[in-house]
UniProtKB/TrEMBL annotation:
InterPro entries: B12_transptr_BtuB, Beta-barrel_TonB, Beta-barrel_TonB_sf, Plug_dom, Plug_dom_sf, TonB-dep_rcpt-like
Keyword Chloroplast annotated: no
Record-annotated TonB-dependent receptor plug domain positions: 49-152
Protein name per UniProt: TonB-dependent vitamin B12 receptor
Gene name as annotated: btuB
Length: 620
């Protein structure tokens, strides 16, 4: 597997991962006993999950060079990030070669995302509010319904875990006028607690548009005419999060959370060039656990995604969308090692678009019942899931999944799975005047995966091979200027992930190969790099910490016709931290240390070399 069009230093860095992981040994590098809930909607450990699962915890977030969620996810196995001009700019995520709206995002169990675009505004979700992230690669429609063709990413916001009063704070400054400040406070007693986090992030930005426009169509590329609006594109985000939980007795648990981010984004365009955005999630849950063999949980919430768009100071349009959801789930231990889960999901999407030329307002509901069986038979594990969705617009859809795992020899584990999934068209695809198609069919898929993993004292490696066949995949047809259904698409991929601790060194690495094609035309699906790699290497020496992150991606096509090529690239980030007093850490990061010029989306620049200096107070 070679990485053409990628600098030699990153080529060597990425490929060096394979022998390093194969020979690793030492203390535990990655806590494979960490409990996750996203893969099965019930608590299980990472090593027991019959799916490709990755956890990014708060310690990794603090140690990383990432200033945003898209930066944190960049280069990870099965994930491709497309960004239009740096911090705060539109960022879309492709998982395992599926579409950018084929990944379901949850925040503390609440579904989030825009019903109009089908996307989650990753760039507007502040890292300061995140405690950990669970990534599940592969279809999960049989548990979560629509939107989970490629996988599920669940974000868990911060919460105090120990009794007493705990605080934290951070300030940072860096290149392009970067300024960041955040603070949080938790008060916790024996039966519950409350907490608050606030954060600010701002940047003067870069000139997002590279000025190379398609002369065949006025408005292609960055949607500007030649030579206009080529200036810095700033961004700011102010956010706050509140939380409270209470356990009146052993059997009951109440939880409530609310978060809101308000921001302003400047970008290049002749029809609109700046936006005011709001991202808000409000929700809560009630859990009743009368015995070890039974639990009932009710979760409900609302996600709001608003955008007011302007050209200069003149109003252009407004997108107001809400996603209301509720779920009732029961988990029943029917025998030792046998768990049966069943429940009901309700979803209501609403959109109101105020535009002088193309207004529309729509709502759509969905109701579903689901069931799942998990069985532990010694060396064998079995998972069966089935779900029936009833969509107001597209009727009923049944999805299912089966997964099996076997532990053998010393530390070896093999898993195999097959699952089906579906996705209803978004409101924009159906109704946006002049650029929609009301005759679109829902997208459906069937996926098969085979995995092999082995772990030992301080190391773990896993290889995943998968294939997805998608029917009625929705793709943009530029000749018709509207979305159309692609009859047949095939996605094949291989992932290799691993982690190890060698003395004071911690190593995490990921490699990916992907072949995603439109079988109708024989063309590759747009914006999916065929090869990718990420390597994170960190070392602690007393009060000092050192680390580097190398990310490499091969070239990709930016259009369905495979005529617009975006070249491959490799970047290297470096960091050093100094814990100069109890609870105090000074950290310096250099991002894109070799000042690589590259794009992830045609026409849009990525920042060059950047520096960040931060001071963090977080008592242990």
């Amino acid at each position: 597997m070679r990485f053409r069009s990628i600098p030699l230093r990153l080529n060597i860095l990425a490929l060096a991962l394979l022998p390093s992981l194969a020979l690793a040994h030492g203390d535990e590098a990655k806590d494979l006993d960490a409990v996750v809930v996203t893969a099965t909607r019930t608590p299980t450990t990472v090593d027991a999950a019959l799916a490709a699962v990755e956890v990014i915890d708060r310690a990794q977030i603090d140690a990383s060079s990432a200033r945003s969620l898209p930066e944190l996810l960049r280069g990870r196995a099965g994930i491709a990030i497309v960004n239009q001009g740096g911090l705060g700019k539109l960022s879309t995520l492709f998982m395992r070669g599926t579409e950018s709206d084929h990944v379901l995002f949850l925040i503390d169990g609440i579904r989030v995302g825009s019903p109009t675009s089908g996307l989650t505004s990753l760039q507007d979700l502040p890292l300061a509010q995140i405690e950990r992230i669970e990534i599940v690669r592969g279809p999960r429609s049989s548990l979560y319904g629509a939107d989970a063709i490629g996988g599920v990413i669940q974000i868990f916001t911060r919460r105090g875990e120990t009794e007493g009063v705990r605080g934290r704070a951070r300030i940072a400054a860096g290149s392009h006028g970067l300024r960041e400040a955040s603070a949080g406070l938790d008060l916790r007693g024996k039966r519950g607690g409350v907490g608050v986090d606030v954060a600010h992030q701002g940047t003067d930005g870069i000139n997002a548009c590279n000025g190379n426009l398609n002369t065949d169509f006025s408005g292609a590329g960055c949607f500007i005419k030649q030579g206009t609006h080529l200036d810095r594109d700033g961004y700011r985000n102010n956010s706050a999060a509140l939380r409270a939980d209470f356990a009146p007795g052993e059997a009951w648990q109440f939880d409530a959370r609310a978060s809101r981010a308000e921001g302003h984004n400047d970008y290049d365009g002749d029809y609109q060039d700046n936006s005011d955005i709001v991202q808000q999630t409000v929700g809560g849950s009630v859990r009743w656990t009368p015995s070890e063999a039974m639990q009932l949980k009710l979760t409900a919430g609302r996600n709001t995604d608003d955008s007011d768009n302007y050209i200069g100071s003149a109003f252009a349009n407004r997108y107001t969308t809400t996603r209301d959801s509720a779920s009732l789930q029961g988990d029943f231990g029917v025998a030792k090692g046998q768990l049966l889960s069943a429940g009901f999901d309700w979803l209501r999407d609403a959109a109101n678009v105020v535009d002088p030329w193309s207004p529309f307002a729509r709502t759509r509901g969905n109701r579903a019942v689901f069931a799942q069986y998990q069985g532990d038979f010694g060396a064998h594990d079995l998972q069966l899931s089935l779900r029936r969705d009833d969509n107001d617009q597209f009727g009923g859809h049944t999805t299912g999944g089966i997964a099996w795992g076997l532990d053998f020899a010393e530390g070896w584990r093999v898993t195999a799975s097959h699952a089906t999934a579906f996705k209803a068209p978004t409101f924009n695809e159906l109704y946006y005047p002049g650029a929609s198609n009301p005759d679109l069919n829902p997208e459906t898929s069937r996926s098969t995966e085979l995995s092999l993993a082995r772990g030992g004292d301080g190391w773990h490696v896993q290889a995943n091979a998968y294939q997805t066949r998608a029917s009625d995949l929705i793709a943009w047809e530029s000749s018709l200027f509207k979305p159309v259904n692609v009859e047949d698409a095939r996605i094949r991929g291989i992932e290799l992930t691993g982690s190890a601790t060698l003395g004071e060194w911690t190593l995490r690495g990921q490699l990916g190969w992907l072949d995603a094609r439109n079988l109708d035309s024989g063309k590759r699906l747009a914006r999916r790099p065929q090869r990718s790699a990420r390597l994170d290497l960190d070392r602690d020496v007393g009060a000092w910490g050192f680390g580097v992150s190398g990310i490499a991606e091969a070239a990709r096509w930016d259009d369905a016709a495979n005529t617009l090529r975006v070249g491959g690239y490799g970047t290297l980030d470096a960091r050093v931290s100094w814990r100069f007093a109890p609870g105090w850490t000074l950290q310096a990061n250099v991002v894109n240390a070799f000042d690589k010029r590259y794009e992830t989306s045609a026409w849009y620049n990525q920042p060059g070399r950047e520096f960040v200096l931060s001071l963090r107070w977080q008592p242990e």
